[in-house]
Amino acid sequence: MGFSDFFFYPDYYGLVKTFLVEMPEYYSTEPVHPDGFLGEVRTYCEAKWSDLYLVVLLAITWTILRYLLTLFVLKPTALSCNLTKGNVTKMAESSWRMFFYVISWSYVAYVVSQSEFDIFGDPPSIFKGWQPAMVVPPLIYWAYAIECSFYLHCFFATIFLDVWRSDSVMLVMHHVLTLSLIGFSYASRYHNVGILVLFCHDFCDICLEFSKINIYFKIRADGTFHGIHEFLANVGFVVFTSSWLVLRMYWFPLKVLYSILPSTAKIYYTDHLPFGMEFNIMLWLLFGMDIYWFSFIVIFLVRIVTGSMKELEDIREETDEEVLKIKKTKELEELQKKGGAETTEQVCNGVVDGTIKNGDGLKQRHPHPDENGKDSH
C-alpha cells in the first residue's frame, strides 16, 4: 500500500459530473427485469431467516449489555468522580458508544486489511468475482451481523434511551438508512462495498465520544475544574475533525462513491450489476448526512473564531444546569478578583457595564431612567 492509496482519484467536480452523466445512461440502457425491481430482488438477492434471527438476538444482547454496563460500571464511575447529575447519564451513554465503536471499527479495519482483494487501495476491486448468492467470507459475515445489530439497537436507543438532541430525528433517519444499506448490500452480495463504507465512517464516532466524555469530566459537581480533561477534549476534537475530513468527506466520496459508478464498477466486472441506481442513491444520501453533520463542526469552529464560544461543547445538546451554575459562579469569582466588590455586586444583580442578561444568556442594554425616574425609551 503506497501513498497513492490514501490520496487518489478524481476531484469532487469530476465525481459529480460523472455521476450526473452516467446514472441517466445506466438507467436507460441497463437490462430491466420483466418483473421490475421485485423481480431483480428475487433473482439477485439471498438472505436466510437465520441471518435475521442472529441480528435481532445480537441487538437484544447489545441492549442488555449496555444496561448492565451502565448500571454496574459507568454510572458508579461517574458518581464516584462527582459528575453533575445531568452529565452522569450523558457520560454513560457516550462511554457505551465509544466502547462499542473501538471494538467494531478495529474489527472492520482488520477485515479490510485481510480482504481477498485490495479494496482500500484499489476500490473498484470490490466487484471482483461478484456473483449472486455468492458465499460471504466469515470475517465479513460477522462484521455485518455485528454492525447491523448495533444499528438496530441504536435505532431503539435513540428513540427510547438516549438524551434527545437537536439532530436526533436526523440520527433516526441515519439508522434507518444504514440498516437498509447493510441489509440490502448483504442480500445482494455487495458486502465489499459495505465493509469499505463502515471503515470510512465508524472511526470518527470514536473520536467524537472520546471528546464528549472528557467534556463531561471537565467540571465536577463540587465546582472543581480539571484541565487535563479540557486538554483531552480539545485533542479529541482535533482528531475528530481531521478524521471526518479525511474519512467521510474525502475517502468515502472519492473512493466508495466513485467506485460504484457504472463505468468504474465495470473495470473488474463487465456484466450486468443490479441495483446500481438504488445503491448510488442511498450512498449519496448517506454522504448528504455526512455533510449535514459536518455543518455542526463548521458552526462550532466559526463560534470559536468569532469568540462567541470559548470552550469545547456539543452544540447539539443543552448544557447541564449544574454546570451552567458552576460556570457562572466561576465568572463571578474572576470578576471579583479583577473589579472588586462593586463589580461583583453588579454582576449578582445581573448588571455589567450597563447591560443585563436575559434568560437566553443574551445581553440586552440596561434601560437608563430619565430625570423623572422613568425609562428613556
UniProtKB/TrEMBL annotation:
Domain named TLC: residues: 89-306
Q: GO molecular-function annotation terms? A: sphingosine N-acyltransferase activity
Has keyword Metal-binding?
A: no
Identify the pathway: Lipid metabolism; sphingolipid metabolism; Sphingolipid metabolism
Q: How does it sit in the membrane?
A: Multi-pass membrane protein
Q: Which residues form a coiled coil?
A: none
Q: Where in the cell is it found?
A: Membrane
Q: Where is this region: Disordered?
A: 355-377
Keywords annotated in UniProt = Membrane, Transmembrane, Transmembrane helix
Any GO BP annotation: ceramide biosynthetic process
One Gene Ontology cellular component: membrane
UniProt lists compositionally biased (Basic and acidic residues) regions at: 360-377
Q: Where does the chain cross the membrane?
A: 52-74, 95-113, 139-161, 168-187, 193-210, 231-251, 281-302
- Spell out the PANTHER family in the cross-references: CERAMIDE SYNTHASE 1 (PTHR12560:SF58), LONGEVITY ASSURANCE FACTOR 1 LAG1 (PTHR12560)
> What is the official name of this protein in its record?
Ceramide synthase 1-like
Which organism does this sequence originate in?
A: Acanthaster planci (Crown-of-thorns starfish)
Instruction: Please name the taxonomic classification of the source.
Output: Eukaryota, Metazoa, Echinodermata, Eleutherozoa, Asterozoa
Q: Which gene is transcribed and translated to give this protein?
A: LOC110984193
